[in-house]
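ok here's the first one, seq then struct tokens
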Amino acid sequence: MRRIFDITDSQLSTIEVAKNLLGRKLISETAEGITTGWIVETEAYLGVRDMAAHTYQWRKTPRVEAMYDQAGTIYIYNMMGNLLLNITTKEIGEPEAVLIRAVQPEQGLELMEARRGKTGYELTNGPGKMTQAMGISMEEYGSSIIEPPLSVDFSTKRTPKEIIKTPRIGIPNKEEWTEAPLRYIVKENPYVSRRRGPIDLENYGWKP
């Protein structure tokens, strides 16, 4: 039997978690309905040594309290009116996390379109677009990503044909951390943000 990936295992590196989350199903259960999507883009944030992380040099404010919690804790923050979903990856007191940047919609497409007022690839191809489409709110801050109403299904996984790593997006003036290749995407998937290159119209970048 294949071992189920355990995001609460703090022995895993944040980079390992960021890669393994690709192809996992994100599930959001709300009063309006259930929406799900396959994760196609992530970014790793390496805590106190990472100049782009909210917890760089052990920064502690009420906003980042969840970052210091155990692996698998949901950390959500507001950036210019957009909510961004992160999942912590290390043991208590070691504030590292993975940002979920984009999903390929699966269930609840009509509800996502109604929330966004959009259709097509623009529906969930960015972290703020994704949280809006899936009805994710600050109410989930500090809860566990392995339990509803906001969860990741770790019992199943789609396998990318190829994972590409690139610098993270929107990280200016952070010295070597600006160009650090800590963003991971499913190659040729159309829901990746700021996508370049061709689209795999047959399988969207997944192995058949």
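and now the second one, same deal
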Amino acid sequence: MKKSIVIVVLTTLLVGCSSRSPYFPKQMEEQVIELVRFDNDLMNVQAATAKEDIAILYEQYPSFMPTYVEDILGISRYDTTYLAEALPAFLNDTIYGFKQTNAYEKIIFADVTGIEQELNNAFTRIHYLYPEWEIPTVYLFVSGFNASLLFVEDGIAVGADMYLGSDYEYYNRVVYEYQKQTMRKECIAADVVSAYLFRHIAYTSTKSRLLDNMIYRGKVLFILSQIFDYLPNYEVMGYSEAQWKWCEKHERDIWNLMMDKRDLFKTETLVLTSYLNDGPFTAEISQESPGRLGTWVGWQIVASYMRHHPEVSLQQLAAEADAEQILQMSYYKP
């Protein structure tokens, strides 16, 4: 399932954030992104004037509207007659709770200045690291519980109805319990930047072992943690505080078990998905564990590597393709 994003404005003024990261100077060239409220314009479509309202959306959003129609609604962009019937019905559906959810989304996202500030700060730092990377446009939309983040032609789109709060009642119908942790408005900025980094930082290893995948993900998470250096690490990871503390408490046992089973050098899909994919737990370790333990351990290895090698820049870290060298030079011994 695809995902979406909003257009944001880049600035270095972030929610009282002064950089604690040693990888960024105090002064950086501010970047400005536009936060595009496609969600508000979409919800203005009325059944009585649907054809005219849809024509306006196509005119206002010549790139994003066709993508939304095809990828979220599953309707041909050229079938405007059917769209004029289906879109109002979709927006006003009460059986699946879309109408109620859209109304709630308007309340939760009435003020998006916090998201804008976080994204401004984050992309200012990204621009400092990689000035050649194109700053994305970020869109906000409602998806009918169909998508969280979606890459589009000119940027990223965010399904705001997937960020209404972990306790939002309709989520019980559409997601598993373990997925609710990051379904909060506060998670949007980190999710957007994480997706952006994974898209731009290439997986350069020629091997597909668990170790290579762990180190790759660990590098991205380490960079993400420096960009969001004001957030606790468990929020960057998408864990609860209790899940993070469980990992810290059992870190040595996790590592010893991985080494005893020689999992680091395995390439089997089942092993990789168990360690790297989201889930209620990491089956290769324990049913009490959180999911994605391979990524968590990869991050700890990379963090150890960077502590021992302060001369290495974030760009150099991202470009390093030798996972075994990073492991060896990390002196990682939990």
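notes on #2: Residues 210-227 form the longest helix (18 residues). The two ends are 37 Å apart (CA to CA).
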